[in-house]
Amino acid sequence: MRRSLGLFDQIGWRHGPALDLGRRWEAAEVGPALRELLAAGPAPEPVYGA
Prior knowledge:
This protein has 2 helices and 2 strands, in the order βαβα. By secondary structure, it is of the alpha+beta class. A two-stranded antiparallel ribbon has the order 1-2. The longest helix is centred in the last third of the chain and has 14 residues, at 27-40.
């Protein structure tokens, strides 16, 4: 069972910061943790061809 939440889950092709509670995530904890991960992640790159 997976217990960590990482930025790579959202962007797919780059690894970023991750949070691991060491236990199962409660639904109310996911939103704030995701916002924290997105704020700590790398800046978006330009779209190919733009």
